[in-house]
Amino acid sequence: MRRDLLLDRIRGCLIGGAVGDALGWPVEFRSESEIFNQYRPNGIRAYDLNAQGVAEITDDTQMALFTANGLLCAETANRRDGRAKPPRGHVAAAYQDWLYTQEADFGPDAAIRPSGVSWLNDVEGLRHRRAPGVTCLKALRLQNAAPGNTEDYVKARLNESKGCGGIMRVAPMGLMDWPDIRALDYEGAQLAAITHGHSLGYMPAAVLVHIIHRIVYPRQPEAALKEIVVEARDTVSEIFACDPFLSELRRVIDLAIDLAEHSPDGDPDNIHRLGEGWVAEETLGISLYCALKYRRDFSAGVIASVNHRGDSDSTGAITGNILGALLGYEAIEPRWTERLELRDVIMEMADDLYACQRAAESGGLETPDWTRKYARGRRKE
Ligand SMILES: [Mg+2]
């Protein structure tokens, strides 16, 4: 049977991101001398499993799953109501459910009230704190205290943060089969801006969703990754043409392309030139460098993306999103998937994203199971 390329790419994007996240997590806050001393001689190249033999995922993957959950709720509501409302409100509601999973106490007296739109709330394995980003927690707590205060997060500028907590979770937006890629890019920025108000916090997210989308829904069958990156850079430059930080975003993207093509230096040195990845434009730059350089080798790309002194799980997650989408799930070695925490949940979400894109052909989203998952506690609008 001919494998379905779209399904393979969607699975590859979500699982690939989780693989990079899980590989990078044990070294997220470690210096390079610590990393290369502990994992001799070439750094971490295989999972450092927990006591239960599991490769743990972190907030990057958790929040990407909630992004997907929110997107599917929005798509389901739109199709049933015959509307085309942007999904940011549903995704912001899903992030409230993620925030709830980060509470130490899940009882009736918990300080955070979940919105209850996400079936992921039922997944016990998501109730772990894995160094969640402070900006995300703070922004979402504010929204929990005062819900429904905005529908335009880019304009609202909630704060001045350009941390990578916005970009690290938006890849599922790129998997949506929207006809207008500029609208898709802008929505990617909106999803990041739910928690990150600096334009360098949300413009890189728009670049990432553009790249993921063009990989998964190619205009020409054999478009090179570099061409897609350049197109993403230029489209996002048009969308945010007046932004004072656009030149910095373009500089990082161009440097990543140049280093991937021409630099004779080793990966850690090249990554240092791009930054450490704690802020979104650097996370994007490091991930683009690794994905472009290792565009035919998923394992080599994610390994390069985590062996540095910066935010290894986030650079690993985004590199994994891109390479997983590009090469497909079937190209990811079993050693990365066998011990991956919540692999079945991630696969289920990928398959639901796929079913949603194919719903027009397969007869819609009307099954009781779909309604239970994506039309629960429908938001009043
Ligand atoms: Mg993390």
Give an overview in words.
The structure is a single chain. The chain is an all-alpha fold. It has one domain: ADP-ribosylation/Crystallin J1 (ADP-ribosylglycohydrolase fold, Orthogonal Bundle). It is built from 19 helices and no strands. Helix 1 runs antiparallel to helix 3 (59-81), helix 3 (59-81) runs antiparallel to helix 4 (88-101) and helix 12 packs antiparallel against helix 13. The longest helix is centred in the N-terminal third of the chain and has 23 residues, at 59-81. The model has no long low-confidence stretch (mean pLDDT 93). Magnesium ion (MG) binds next to helix 3 and helix 15.
Give a short summary of the structure:
The protein is mostly helical. The chain has one domain: Orthogonal Bundle (ADP-ribosylglycohydrolase fold), CATH 1.10.4080.10. The chain is built from 19 helices and no strands.
